[in-house]
Amino acid sequence: MATFRKLKSGNWQARVSKDGKEFSIGTYRTKKEAEIEAGKVEERIYYGQALNDRNMLFEEVAKEWLYDYKKSNVKESTFEQLEVIVRLHILPFFNNKRIMKIRRTEIKRWINEFGEKEEGIAKYSFGSRLKYLSVLKSIFHYAVHELEVLEKNPADRLKVPVQDSVANKKETKYYSLSELNKLLEYMKAYKHQRFHDYQLYYMLMYFLSQTGLRISETLALRWSDIEDNKITIERQTRRSENNELLLTTLKNTSSYRTIGLQDELVRELKKFKLKQNELIIGSQKFHKNVDGIIFQNYSGNYLTPSIVRETIQKYCKKAGVEYKGTHGFRHTHAVLLLESGASIKFVSQRLGHKSIKTTADTYLDITEKIEEDELKKFASYTSMKF
To answer: What homologous superfamily is domain 177-373 in, according to CATH?
Structure first.
């Protein structure tokens, strides 16, 4: 028979008996909630179901979730990201706590700490905090449904504060059409110190702005991926902990796609390929990449994202254009497509987004021109004709 006790805090503690021993199953806001949870536990005891160790530390649960469950079910790159999140952002706060003693108030405090501001800017981005909370929820879900050491998930339905998501949308950086043209004009005239006519970074920036591909997808592209005026995206690059190149699968199933290329871009790519082949044949210091990639350096190697970022940042400074990051070209492509009248569905599919909602949430409210054009269409349609 379960027993219930009202604590000084106003919460109710529930205790159940098994094999002549009484133990607590937790504290709850109301007696009714405590009775419901105690009933669930007593039912499991009645039917002989195992009640696992409720004294497990959070660290034990998190590591079992990570190494015994996640490691065999996700890509290596995803596992590495999860390991970093657990080690650096979750365990320092929860590791030595008994998992059944962790309360929603503690989790809220943990979320808020990541959102604390330094010089007016949050220590961690909204996207990072969403990811950390998602991982924590998954660990608790594992404790409830796999280990059965909890009756309910204390992080269930918790969210990162809504006002942070609004602020996050303003952080999306993209190049205006005039900024993009200014940067590309500078790069078109720029001469490489060693190979003057090998316009690697002009071609890379132009390609990114015209396709919206992720930098990891772009650096893995091969000439064989292009057929007529279409290009197929089916792999990406990443670096191991030892900075070794790895070719891996894409982010999700939607990332595997074939997109069309504008005629002007196709012509530029053909000229770039011709120059690349001329240098491979005519210069002993220019080597061919064994995989036949498009954006190789003169040593025949893959470019690394870190070197690309540093180099583009340097060129932006010389061109007098604010550096918006390599992902800025992807945002630029999406915004310019929408401003030109492309449908949100087309943009979503072209970017390889998992859902149209991702595209809409990211782009529809960051450019005034879209709203102005849509209002003009509405005004034209509804205006009275005399």
So the answer is: Intergrase catalytic core (1.10.443.10)
